């Protein structure tokens, strides 16, 4: 289950419903490295190639738009950016404003051929969640409270196959902010009834079940990673930008989790689910 694939399908469907030609393209690592040019409004399909390969594909004209994530792309471009080390309070970051410091720094770091469009409120930030109604963990509400007792718990990194390497990378960064080491830190694609603490992305469908409670990141371990379209300046005109901006305005973290759940459980229904979602959000037919 690759979030880039699902979001790219959403981008393409939104454009097509408004009468704008678009297609879904797959970026292969070899093609991205070769810099093959593919003319037309293509959108990347996979997340497994990583942020740098997507950036290269946009810069060289292989595709016109890719889904990206603010702090995660900035880390890929400039891992030594001070804003990432200082960490931004999540309640102070405003995805609608150009003054969000992480988004602003990321935008300044982009190659000149690329452009970041309006970020959505939907997040792919790394989060920690604990199981509800577990007496051993019921009183824990914040990262610092977990850190004080983390040696008692086994923490699961919940990662779908396409996300394993990136998840483990971010888990390592989060762990640096802890004052202790958990009993164990394992990576699995499934969660069992014995798992009480998980590290995952905010858009993980697992969190839709109601069985999990997100902890408050009072340690400000990681800056928020808002979802946004990264585009080629030469390929995305004003009509396309307006559609992308409208989509960002309406997309939420819960929406992304729902899309990923459909893709994971019933992939043959994903296209219809996306179409229904877009129509419910006002994307039916051509914009007048």
TrEMBL record:
InterPro entries according to UniProt: ABC_Gly_betaine_transp_sub-bd
Pfam families from the UniProt entry: OpuAC
Domain of life per record: Bacteria
Alphabetized GO MF terms: transmembrane transporter activity
Gene Ontology CC: ATP-binding cassette (ABC) transporter complex
Domain ABC-type glycine betaine transport system substrate-binding residues, every copy: 43-260
Protein name in the entry: ABC-type glycine betaine transport system substrate-binding domain-containing protein
Organism of provenance: Lawsonella clevelandensis
